[in-house]
Design brief:
The structure holds two protein chains of two kinds. Chain A is of the alpha/beta class. Helix content of chain A is 47%, strand content 9%. A five-stranded parallel β-sheet of chain B has the order 2-1-3-4-5, with helices on both faces. The two termini of chain B are 15 Å apart. Classes of the chains: A alpha/beta, B alpha/beta.
Chain lengths: 348, 123
């Protein structure tokens, strides 16, 4: 049995009801939701309540593989289909026959593969690479994505016909920050779960104050982030510190506090003036231009540090996010003297 | 016309739904309405015995019109269903595969839709 759908919010209640209504139909389904909200959990629940329970449940992440590889993973290949294809290999559509195929991150699939997928969905047939024969497949396709596929259609990145073909049932899972009433039930569920796994009765469970902090956090990484935090707490102890780090580490403010701008706090303002203890009047080193440069540098430094933290100091990824060239980013890191936080100190 | 027909109309655009409901009421129908597929299906389940016809949009939240049509046609093959589709949306082929009795593309005139419904009802 996979995990149950945990939550008391209206969104989760609706999803449970929907799952009960559609699991037996075998209609194609798209599950929408941010990373970490639990799209696979919903897919597993659909599968378990369907007549296909007990048959294969096959999952593939369309974003994790390059196009050619994804194609051979999905459809399989014959021996000699391409250089290195020494053995015939069955594709996911064959492996999932009679069961469920979960296409995760469908929004990242190339247009060429989308066309092939559409063909399979329309005809129930596919041909492995290098094969002349079409194979029949009876596979229930459930797709998941964090993309706005409607937007992807307008941008020419997703086929409209495939969208309608897949989107017979649409399930939308709201991000955790929009359903804070689910945080407590999720904490209870996972604490029990992990305690069982860790098998100890002498494990320190987070206390009321910590739980309250967790409830107020806005969980950008959704349920997956919550799971990781709870695991860390049970394994490492020191729940207080771990909870506080959530709010400190990324400069993220508690949801019950008004957000303050990077340069808005009085301390920062003083540092921008940077009078070195001298008076403002008759101070030659002070100018608006110099202060402006300092402010910009400070903001740049914070933003770049933040992105680098988030990408585990993968500078190539960070440069893409920041939309600057790799070289510019390296220059900025040197110029602004950005160093990894203590956790990443092994990196240059 | 003696006893009135009972129609279920499913559309997620509020203005369209209320316009359709109003028109069919004026024409003497008993009207049920839903704004998404799940609510529509639940009404069909509870009212199947005296429901005469269903008019559904194809693109709907949660359970699409295509799914509603398939489910209805599997369980109650004789219950007529008209699919209506929005501008710039092209799931008509799917509606036909799902065996909708008729697919009408918006924009259409309300009397046209009502006439189509009546034709299916007296068949």
């Amino acid at each position: 049995m996979g995990p149950p759908i945990v939550g008391v919010s209206e969104n989760i209640q609706k999803i449970k009801e929907l799952v009960e209504h559609v699991a037996h139909t075998g209609f194609n389904i798209v599950i929408f939701g941010e990373s970490g909200v639990g799209k696979e959990v919903i897919a597993q629940n659909l599968y378990q309540r369907s007549p296909r329970a007990g048959k294969p449940f096959v999952k593939i992440n369309c974003a994790a593989l390059p196009e050619g590889l994804l194609e051979s993973e999905l459809f399989g290949y014959e021996r000699g289909a391409f250089t290195g294809a020494e053995q015939k290999r069955r594709g996911k559509f064959q492996l999932a026959h009679g069961g469920v195929l979960l296409l995760d991150e469908i929004g990242d699939m190339s247009l060429v593969l989308q066309a092939k997928l559409l063909h399979v969905l329309q005809s129930g047939e596919f041909a492995p690479l290098g094969s002349e024969k079409d194979l029949k497949t009876d596979t229930w396709v459930i797709a998941a994505t964090n993309h706005d596929l409607k937007q992807d259609i307008s941008d020419g990145k997703f086929r409209e016909d495939l969208y309608y073909r897949l989107n017979i049932i649409k399930i939308y899972i709201a991000p955790l920050r929009e359903r804070p009433e689910d945080i407590l039930p999720l904490i209870d569920y996972y604490l029990d779960e992990y305690e069982n796994q860790l098998g100890g009765s002498n494990i320190e469970r987070p206390g009321g104050a910590v739980i309250e902090k967790l409830r107020r956090y806005h969980w950008p990484g959704n349920v997956r982030e919550l799971q990781n935090v709870l695991k860390r707490m049970l394994v490492l102890g020191d729940c207080e510190k771990i909870a506080d780090e959530l709010f400190d580490s990324s400069g993220i403010k508690r949801t019950d506090q008004a957000p303050t701008s990077v340069v808005g706090s009085p301390g920062t303002f003083q540092s921008l003036l940077d009078l070195d203890g001298k008076e403002l009047i008759d101070n030659n080193s002070f100018s608006l231009k110099a202060a402006k440069k300092k402010a910009v540098d400070k903001v740049e430094k914070e933003i770049i540090s933040y992105v680098l933290e988030k990408t585990d100091w993968n500078r190539s990824k960070a440069s893409k996010i920041l939309k600057v060239s790799y070289k510019t980013l390296l220059n900025k890191i040197a110029e602004l003297n950005i160093t990894p936080a203590s956790g990443n100190s092994d990196l240059p | 016309m003696g006893s009135s027909y009972k129609v279920l109309i499913i559309d997620d655009t509020e203005e369209v739904l209320s316009a359709l409901c109003k028109y069919f009421k004026q024409k003497g129908y008993e009207v049920l309405s839903a704004s998404n597929g799940l609510d529509g299906l639940k009404m069909i389940e509870s009212d199947k015995d005296d429901l005469d016809i269903i008019i559904t949009d194809l693109v709907l939240p949660n359970i699409s019109g295509v799914a509603v049509i398939s489910i209805v046609k599997k369980k109650y093959p004789l219950l007529p269903v008209i699919a209506i589709t929005g501008w710039g949306e092209h799931p008509e082929a799917l509606a036909k595969e799902a065996k909708a009795d008729l697919v009408m593309e918006k924009p259409f005139k309300l009397p046209e839709l009502e006439k189509a419904a009546r034709d299916l009802l007296v068949k």
